[in-house]
């Protein structure tokens, strides 16, 4: 029996690695068989997959349920969007929404983002610091579980409301759009779009490998131990707050990079993309893929978002019902998500082998209970 289990485990690993290689091969060839529009969609969803990997790290492996990852995603997106908005302006000019709001000069915290170096550093640093600060304040007070989820949900609502209310500085409900150039390249040039696709795919692969390596280190093992029994880990002399803060900060950094890459494909960022509902949709994609499977969340993010695009185009009002039904189905039928399907299949095959191997046993072992009672 042990040999059979080892063989099945090795087969599962081989299948998983083969699937990962096949998926990477398909994505590498995507610019050669997809139209410009579909390639842009794929680029957006690959950027969102970076965010999903971060959510898998903090939720699936760290047990930290966050309903406000859209905040950190939005911070990264707005950091780059501010650069894109001002880099095309002549000296003394202002973005259109600032003129409409009556401003006569560019705010200082906008002008520093004219530098591409500051913008790129801000994409990573701003959401990382925000996530680390929130996590440190909350986890050191031993707040976790549903209370932390509610705090992050309230934060997402407050952040989106703040962006809408500050029309003169953030573009309000319409957000930031109408970008022209970045680093001297036109953002609408097809060759630039292909280059951004390659960059997005490369960052996704790096994020995947980084998290996969991190989970195999002692840090990853302690993080899983905290998820399964935080009090026990604290009793052993570890400080769970430090590990959880570091994991949450990394999740925030991945969210910020994801947001920045997303707007290069989509060309727009607005408060509607970072509120409570988008944050929950991000979690649903991770749940569908299997929150402890990095490759599973990538596949599910692509599938769910392509499904959303298709369904919303055909029947706009149906998507929320489909999303709700999908989440209920995963929770009730596939708690391990799509990544759990191979395990279910192998478990079924194993049970069938055990059943077939137990046939032909003599005596009363195969007799129904009534017949056994009659024999007695």
Describe this structure in words.
By secondary structure, the chain is mostly helical. It has one domain. Helix content is 74%, strand content 2%. It has helices spanning 2-28, 30-33, 36-61, 69-87, 96-100, 108-111, 116-139, 146-165, 167-170, 190-216, 218-228, 230-235, 240-266, 276-289, 294-314, 319-333, 341-357, 369-375; strands at residues 176-177, 181-182, 185-186, 268-269. Strand 2 (181-182) and strand 3 form a beta hairpin. The two termini are 33 Å apart. The model is unreliable at 360-376 (pLDDT under 50).
Task: Please give the structural blueprint.
Layout: H1 2-28, H2 30-33, H3 36-61, H4 69-87, H5 96-100, H6 108-111, H7 116-139, H8 146-165, H9 167-170, E1 176-177, E2 181-182, E3 185-186, H10 190-216, H11 218-228, H12 230-235, H13 240-266, E4 268-269, H14 276-289, H15 294-314, H16 319-333, H17 341-357, H18 369-375
Antiparallel strand pairs: 1-4, 2-3
